[in-house]
Amino acid sequence: MNNKKNTQNNILIIGSIIFVTIAVIVFVISLSLLNNGRDGDSSSNGQAESSSAISESSSIAPQSSSDAQESSSQAPESSSLTPQSSSKTPESSSQTPQSSSNAQGSSSKTPQSSSSSVEMSRAQVVLENARLLIGTPFKDGGEDKDGFDSSGFIYYVMRESGFITCPRNIVEQSKMGVIHEFDELEVGDALFFSNEIGGSPNFAGFYSGDGKMIGCIITSSFEGVVEVNIMNNYYSSHFVAGVGIG
């Protein structure tokens, strides 16, 4: 009886040991599987985290590039200052014409500052108007650009020069201003001559200086408005009067 009990006890012990061993083995296997699962999860998580890190880092790149774009977009703003600053240049340069216009204004005042020069220019105007008519033919009784006689030429030039009270008759013309002698002639003076020495005037002209006269006269080569030299005995001896225009 005792042997049977011992045998049964041994079987129970062995069975328990086997059971415990199997249980331990199962526990170890389960634990290892559990650890492997955790490692797999952690690795997958690590991969996910690394991939997310990569994606995050890659997502940062566009942000940095967008920042670069923003900074580059800011660059035109700073560069846009150049036209603004350069736009000030025309403003400053636009002041130059004002100063130059002032200079012109001051220069334009020069003729006005001297009334004597204006008075002197009256004779010059007469002379220039006479010079413009050189080549106009002689016409008996004429007093326009189609043709002149001697007194008609004086009449036309004087009236064109502002002397609207100039008479038409040559004798009256020879008395219309300050009388100058032959050696006292001034540029622009109206000169009067007679075909007969000591007679009344019957042809005339304007003294142009340097011993010359512009008049509507009859010469051996031309009949009409011409410039001639009066520094010879004929003109000096047939001279009647000079009339000062100024």
Walk me through this protein's architecture.
By secondary structure, this protein is an alpha+beta fold. It folds into 2 domains: 1-108; 120-244, endopeptidase fold (from Nostoc punctiforme) (Alpha-Beta Complex), CATH 3.90.1720.10. Helices cover 60% and strands 15% of the residues. It is built from 6 helices and 8 strands, in the order αααββααβββββαβ. The protein has helices at residues 2-79, 81-113, 115-131, 150-160, 170-173, 233-237, and strands at residues 143-144, 147-148, 178-180, 190-193, 203-209, 212-218, 223-229, 239-244. It has a 6-stranded antiparallel sheet. A hairpin with a 2-residue loop joins strand 1 (143-144) and strand 2 (147-148). 20% of the residues are buried. Residues 42-120 have low confidence and may be disordered.
Draw up the topology in text.
Layout: H1 2-79, H2 81-113, H3 115-131, E1 143-144, E2 147-148, H4 150-160, H5 170-173, E3 178-180, E4 190-193, E5 203-209, E6 212-218, E7 223-229, H6 233-237, E8 239-244
Antiparallel strand pairs: 1-2, 3-8, 4-5, 4-8, 5-6, 6-7
